[in-house]
Amino acid sequence: MRVLVVEDEQVLADAVAVGLRRESMAVDVVYDGDTALEHLWVNEYDVVVLDRDLPGVHGDEVARTLVKDGYPGRILMLTASDGVEDKVEGLSLGADDYLAKPFAFAELIARVHALARRATPPLPPVLERHGIALDPANHTVHRDGTEVSLTPKEFAVLQVLMRAQGTVVSAEGLLEKAWDENADPFTNVVRVTVMTLRKKLGEPAVIHTVPGAGYRL
User: Fold this and answer.
1) Residues 21, 110: one domain?
2) Does residue 113 carry a pLDDT above 90?
3) Which one of 9, 72, 202, 207 is most buried, by most CB atoms within 10 A?
4) Rounded to whole angstroms, how far apart are CA atoms 193 and 113?
């Protein structure tokens, strides 16, 4: 899952990003509305955690722009305005969910996972394929009933492959979804991560390399 955090309080924004990355999400962080729109025009995010009161382009205008352009990602408004009228207004702008500050981080994580499940086509809470069961909310993976211990990045790569439902995912696609914008596009980190993931999942191998195209589970 790839998430964009748009929050002008840099300490809070960076803390949110660290917490989301611990959940195996690829996270980019920006601190104003103008930069947010630049990132959104270039990248496709599953969820946008959006503060309303932003410098530059206001968060409300960012939300309106995404809705008008039919952006596929879900919007979670994260803001200090917690009155009923504020929530109604935020949702009417096109936000899919609304969380007031201060908030419990566990609730933020749960809401981000819930928004990601509203993707098209909708995905089940637990992804299952070839005897592998991946639970994003509880951050667990089992193969044939036995738990498999994965690093956050291995978990993220497996989740991208399982969400692809048998279609091929290119190395570039994995890099885009499982790593943030600071990842080196010329690195071999995707190949190495897939190799260690294959080993941990055991035999028979379920992740297959499609020469010249990418990987398929």
Assistant:
1) yes
2) no
3) 207
4) 23
